[in-house]
Task: inverse folding
């Protein structure tokens, strides 16, 4: 089955509004026994083919973060690199790749976060942002360190906030152990550490660096943590 076929099957089932479709099926099945379900399922396009279609789309969607991360970086390179600056290492795949950063050139190291910040309680996104900031800030290099984000309002608000560092690193004990070995109990909140290190990492808003990039991301973003 192709993705086009899978998409058509799912769209035919949804009939425009999935919420309305689900509500309608819930109503139709109330009071029914299994002997009536075969005809009802046939009428409403409920089949193993529909499930296969949905699973195919889910699998494809699970790789979208990888595509956004890779293509986003590739499109940004011509805009953010200085004349004469040379790429030494790229890590285009999202997640843990074994490479220290997304980009290293002869004059900078950089991480890219293609996150649609909502402004609410976003602990997982905040945790990821802090980890990238911390690893950049502590990396032994004379090169400039960049943390690129899409929209800097919420990242700056978080970094200047009072969230406990123990909470931020609670799901990454290796990171927390490393932090404690370096600083002990010197810092207890994100703001305290950020004030200590903010001059070492340039937090750059990609929407300001490349305006049309920011507009493109805003037009298509739904979530997620890349």
Result:
């Amino acid at each position: 089955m192709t993705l086009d076929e899978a998409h058509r099957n799912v769209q035919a089932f949804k009939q425009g509004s999935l919420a309305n479709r689900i509500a309608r099926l819930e109503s139709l099945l109330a009071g029914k026994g299994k002997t009536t379900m075969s005809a009802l399922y046939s009428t409403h396009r409920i089949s193993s083919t529909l499930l296969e279609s949905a699973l195919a789309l889910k699998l494809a969607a699970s790789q979208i973060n990888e595509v956004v991360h890779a293509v986003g970086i590739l499109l940004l390179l011509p805009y953010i690199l200085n004349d004469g600056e040379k790429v030494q290492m790229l890590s285009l795949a999202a997640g843990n790749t074994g490479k220290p950063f997304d980009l290293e050139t002869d004059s900078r190291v950089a991480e890219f976060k293609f996150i649609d910040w909502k402004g609410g309680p976003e602990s997982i996104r905040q945790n990821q942002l802090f980890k990238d900031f911390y690893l950049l800030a502590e990396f032994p290099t004379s090169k400039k360190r960049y943390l690129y984000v899409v929209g800097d309002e919420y990242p700056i608000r978080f970094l200047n906030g009072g969230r406990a560092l123990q909470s931020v690193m609670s799901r990454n004990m290796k990171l927390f152990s490393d932090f404690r070995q370096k600083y002990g109990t010197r810092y207890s909140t994100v703001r305290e550490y950020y004030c200590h290190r903010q001059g070492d990492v340039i937090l750059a808003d990609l929407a300001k660096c490349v305006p049309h990039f920011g507009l493109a991301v805003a037009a298509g973003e739904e979530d997620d943590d890349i």
